[in-house]
């Protein structure tokens, strides 16, 4: 009975605490090697707590070297059985790319269901970010990853057959090359999609249906997305931040909540007309910026019955560092 309970206890502990339990008894010494969630948080930026810039950089390099050594030691000793999640969060210079390749190979060879690589940007220019081989996620005899979070990498995705069981995809500060809409079209099980400050995509027009997509977040305030168009019959929550662009959500009759934040100073008049798909929502959050008070007088008249299903609306208008809030 105890042998059956021990692995369960280990799975509920953070990896660091699970390793520490190896001193409890000899029978517990190797249990951590079967831990299902391998999550590693390393150093990010040079230390800011010291007045000596070079001492801070040296300290960070030492911490990063220790972090790399720890990760390599853990994956070398791990049993390779039952890995559910593999997560790396660390600033990683380009000269350490071979370690990253090893970690990706480990996660994909064990078919981890959740893969999280947040490589906080420490190298400039951004052209120096690491390449993440998406093709490795479906090159092991079929698709296996269900949740994928990538930050500060590039994803040239040649040779992708399809991430057919991927349910959640989050891309933050990612350089995207190639046919990104075509890649999304191959993710037939996608339920949650977040695209935050990514480059390389100007036309986010997806001709194929994403029938299971329920949450879509697009933050393009610092990028150049010019159009958003997709078919998502089950979409329930839509969030957008960026310039006023054409946004067409076909067949989104189940949309319940929408959050719109336009960064243009003359966009308030377009707020309720640029995204016609938000009309049937029950919860609406809108934030806009105006350059002068007179713009409030030019708002279009909303036709009667336009928001018949609306139950709650939050409208935030920013003008010259002044924030006015209206609640309905």
Automatic annotation (TrEMBL):
Q: Where is the At1g61320/AtMIF1 LRR domain?
A: 74-318
Domain of life per record: Eukaryota
Residues of the F-box domain: 6-35
Supply the source organism's classification: Eukaryota, Viridiplantae, Streptophyta, Embryophyta, Tracheophyta
Q: What is this protein called?
A: F-box domain-containing protein
